[in-house]
Amino acid sequence: MGVIDGFLTFLERLGGKTAEVAEKPVRRLPQGKTVQERLRALKALQREVTEEEEAPSREEEIEEFLEWRKEEMGKPFSERLGDAMLHYFRGPVEALTNSLKGLDEDLFRANIKTPKDRYVAMMLGVSLFAGLFSVFIAYLFYLPVTTSLLIGFLGFVGVFFYLREYPKMVWRRRVADVERAMPYALRHMASLLSAGVGISEALLSVAKADYGAISEEFDLVIRDMRTGSSFEDALTKFDEKMASDSISRVIKQILRAVKFGGNLADILYKLAEDFSFEYRMKLMEYVQRVNGVAFVYMFMTIVMPTMFVVGILAGSMMAHSLIMPPETLAVVLLLVFPMISLIIVNMIKKGEPR
Known about the structure:
By secondary structure, this protein is mainly α. Among the domains are: 2-73, no CATH class; 77-173; 288-354.
């Protein structure tokens, strides 16, 4: 019996060592001399079990936080700044949002899906940042405090009004892109209609093609039709969104042909030719206008600076001293004349037919 007891003791010790090095050790019931000691040991054991159960949930929270942080850092700085402004200054932002009339319509026409209050918060945040940055730049040039504050205020106001007009600029650019691609889309639809395809399928084909903004707009028309809008309502909504006479003429012709009957393919071919003819006429007018502006551009960028420098040198020689400080001369030559050139180039660019 002594040999058996010794063997059992060895196995018990071996099992204890195995349990100690196991990945999840087996907890034994606490043993103590008194009932209070056993209760305290049980409470400590319960706390250990609870902490181990909460550890996975904490890891999940950390992973969710890191994922949220990564998503936030992926957003543009302007959006994050707008979210902060909306969070801390919701009252002033909402008051300003209610005072800006027509902003929601401009955002809709520009296809900007940002909510109105969030866009206003972004406007305030970016404008405030621009104002502070302008004050900092003015301070670096050792300008007086009042001048620096004035420059900062002008920077704030200028950026704010620019962001207010930005949706309108995007909308005008988008309308120009749609009008430029309209002849190609109309010919695409006309060829499909001649082959016996329905008007809805023709719109879907243009939406899936690579015609730029007009493909995106036709895709929105198809989505409206799938969500319950009629064909007429979807096209009317597209017409109101674009607010263009040329696009409105196309939409009215399509709706009239669908409602009263007619060869829609021939009508679309004719409209495409009209668009092409109008573009050619605008291009000819643009070329004639550029020929006149080109002379002014060459005079302002080449002849005028040369005459200005010659005049300054001649006057200085006659007066036996510089009639203009070198700093002022450098500002005129390096800033004023290049600025005039940029204005002329911008005017030529804006006059380009779309």
